[in-house]
Amino acid sequence: MKKLLALFFVLLMALSLFAGCGGNKNELVMATNAAFPPYEYKEGNKIVGIDAEIAEAIAKKLGMTLVIEDVEFGAVLTGVAQGKYDMGMAGITVTEDRKKTMDFSNTYATGIQVIIVKDGSSIKSLDDIFEFNADGDPVGLKNPDIKVGVQENTTGDIYSSDAIEKWGFNDLNEDGSIKTDRVVRYKTGAEAVAGLGTKVDCVIIDNEPAKSFVAKNQGIHILEGENEYAVEDYAICVQKGNTELLEKINKALDELKADGTIDKIINKYIPKDGGAS
After folding, report:
1. Are 186 and 105 in contact (CB under 8 A)?
2. At residue 262, what are phi and psi to the nearest 5 degrees?
3. Exposed / middle / buried, residue 60 (Cβ in 10 Å: 0-12, 13-18, 19+)
4. Element containing residue 255 per DSSP (H, E)
């Protein structure tokens, strides 16, 4: 009798676990950092933006329910790599280092890294930041005491933390470790912007969030003209080796591009006249 009862409880637990797994199979869990307008940000308790709407459209194509988890940007990447989340969308750029730990979808949007400074700053262009050789490559900094604000773990952080000859701001040791760190890292772009003029001389961040921050904060502006810091493509990340999900996402993206859905979503938040909602 005891053996029969033990077997019954084992079967009951197995069925319970199976039922739990089945319930989650219909959910597409997306990790993001909802402090990156217009790609993802909060309106009240709801996460909205370009990435949120594209993810919703993808989930609909897959016949799944979208669940969005708002975490720090670094946790988006590590969580996806560890399989905690199905995918990550947070204005994520494909880099060689990131490709070592996760896989990426086709590109769905293009981002431009720009430089924000306070009004009246001595920094008017890239020429006021870097010293260049005859080929136009950076070889030094005009101000060796410059401090640059970034959102940690973003490509702005990655690029600016590199050596000066690679368009970074740091002096590196022979082993690649940082000798002189001129980059100040913040949890969010808004915190980096708040440090302008007191803790940092400039902020490097994506153009569209930059427009939003400038619109909300008086006395700051984006460097104009041919002073973009970097141009990059955004993609969706999934756990490395999850080819089944990646293929489904790419198929959905292709269909959403073909029927104009992605352009419609992007134009909703980034009007073609250059403004931003």
Report:
1. no
2. -65, -45
3. middle
4. helix 243-258
> Could you give the CA distance from residue 160 to residue 173 in angstroms, rounded to a whole number?
16
The pTM score is 0.71
For residue range 13-60, list pLDDT tens digits in order: 443 433 333 346 799 999 999 988 889 999 999 999 999 999 999 999
DSSP state for residue 15 in the 8-state scheme: H
Residue 8 pLDDT > 50:
no
> Cα separation of 191 and 181, whole Å?
19
C-alpha–C-alpha distance, residues 214 and 230, integer Å: 19
- Smallest CA-to-CA distance from 95 within 115, 116, 77, 75 is with 77
CA distances (Å), origin 93, targets 62, 88, 113, 247: 24, 11, 11, 19
CA angle 105, 111, 112 (to 5 degrees): 150
Q: What domains can be seen in the chain, in order of their start residue?
A: 26-108+235-269 (3.40.190.10), 112-232 (3.40.190.10)
Three-state secondary structure call for residue 176: coil
Beta bridge partners of 131: 140
Q: Give the separation between CA 163 and CA 235, rounded to whole angstroms.
A: 26
**Which of 236, 188, 187 shows the shortest CA–CA distance to 29?**
236
What are the C-alpha distances in Å from 266 to residues 80, 106, 115, 251? 24, 16, 22, 19
Would you state the pLDDT for residue 3? Answer: 42
Cα dihedral angle (97, 99, 101, 105), rounded to 10 degrees?
150
SS3 134: coil
d(CA 8, CA 6): 5
The per-residue pLDDT for range 239-266, each reduced to its tens digit, is 999 999 999 999 999 999 999 999 999 9
175: amino acid identity, one letter: D
